[in-house]
Amino acid sequence: MKTNKNTILGWAAFIMVLMGLLLIGLGIFRYDDVAGWGFGAVGLGFLANAWVFSSLKGRL
Q: What is the pTM of this model?
């Protein structure tokens, strides 16, 4: 299996989307206090970074 930079960026974006959704889910379903807002904000940050990685595929 050949791994070039586009494959690496694709896997990184996929993993970051999974982590972002997991953190948002933790913020919604597990924590009902202020910590839930923090988990949700960090999850949105992960999704934003995954979007950047996905848009960089093919350009680097």
A: 0.84
